Amino acid sequence: xxxxxxxFAFVCGLGVKLVGIPPLVGYLVAGFLLNAFGFSATPxxxxxxxxxxxxxxFTIGLKLxxxxxxxxxxxxxxxxxxxxxxxxxxxxxxxxxxVLSALTGQIDWQSAALIAFAFSFSSTVCVVKVLEEAGExxxxxxxxxxGVLVMQDIFAVVFLVVATGKIPSLWAPLLLLIIPLMPVLxxxxxxxxxxxxxxxxxxxxxxxxxxxxxxxxxKGDLGALIFGLxxxxxxxxxxxxxxxxxxxxxxxxxxFLSIGLTALPDINMLMMSGLLVLIIPIKFMLxxxxxxxxxxxxxxxxxxxxxxxxxxxxxxxxxxxxxxLGMLGEKWLVVLAVxxxxxxxxxxxxYRYSHSIYQRIKEPVxxxxxxxxxxxxxxxxxxxxxxxxxxxxxxxIGAFTSLNKIADSRVWGMDADRAKIQRMRKDGMNxxxxxxxxxxLWENLDIRxxxxxxxxxxxxxxxxxxxxxxxxxGYSGKIAAIARYExxxxxxxxxxxDKVFNFFTEAGxxxxxxxxxxxx
Length: 520
Fold this sequence. Notes:
Blueprint: H1 2-17, H2 23-36, H3 43-63, H4 66-69, H5 72-99, H6 101-104, H7 109-118, H8 124-134, H9 140-164, H10 178-191, H11 197-215, H12 220-231, H13 237-261, H14 267-277, H15 280-293, H16 298-307, H17 314-324, H18 331-350, H19 354-367, E1 387-390, H20 394-407, E2 411-415, H21 418-426, E3 431-433, H22 439-444, E4 452-455, H23 460-472, E5 478-483, H24 486-494, E6 499-502, H25 503-516
């Protein structure tokens, strides 16, 4: 049966991908269609879904810096948004219940507040998936969004404790013993090598954190996240996260299927879900307004607010708990499931066009910015730059290092990962922190003397978008980019890239040329 589910998910995912829509939308559609055919979630699909969420939270922790959570825009923005949202939406729901009682039934203030709270959360699964597909998880707005999601996870734990009366056991303080054990666990990670043992090590740590926290009556997902955080400073953290990527994506298919398989709505429920989807723009406007009041740049507030403008799978947990306690009618659980699914589709589609939309609305957005800039949002400067390498991953670092030997101070590098840039600056390298897809950055960066821009990015969509941003900013030099597959080469060339290097072909050619010196 599970094979049929996965096959159907594959067909739907491939179908929507062919028309330019993210595959996760297809997985959601597959779940609803299977539900309509009379199928329901099996234990195996539920296990897949839970594994996907646990591994995803662990990998988030591996990429997270605790300093990001301590920033005012993260903790203050999260708390303020939750409070304001609950107040505003509670009032709207009570008003809707009075006007549309035939559709919604009477809604008292407690039920309204509970529904509003359930919809205050943004989906960790959806947001992280969208950011990773766009290659923006380490950008300023990406880190902001993930920080808000972590804060919301903390709110979730507090709610579950209060609502269920399930308090942490007396053994919970023993979890602190994990800290002195970390040197041993890190040694285990060091010995795991680079092959098949590495992702298995990640599974053991992620599931170990989950079950340890569950044993002391604390939400297991929080345990997986904290274990990831503890391993984040390790040099192999990034490699372990990459080794888990394919497993996480596969298991998350089970999550999206299970959402659609939860329940099938009738016409009234669909109408109620439609009304609740209509208030998503309020969620975006609240995030945008709060982020700009906290002195974030307009573009960061816009993109951060947009990717967070969806509803969370945690709303289903809140709904199920409320139904079991008799605080909500059973139909609300179906409405929550349908509304959450539609919000996923909304975010995954509209975020795909977020940068092109920003280009059209950037002037009014910038007028809403605070006149005071945060230290992290001051535009960088480059001097005497002749060559600029955008993206300092393994390929970018290699190109940057090689070019430095030739052109020295005339070569600069740029990456969205602030921590990486700080480390490279300490080593005396000419590097700046920046998001290549930020049109405001290019308009404020002096690139008049730059003759060549190298786009060392894994996503050709990002490379194409940056090429357009450079042209719009008046750049007249040459642009080179890398591609992994042959069909990507023509796509980049057609969109203005002057030279495209097929990564595997060029690596093989270089390897051959270097090796020939051994027989000459």
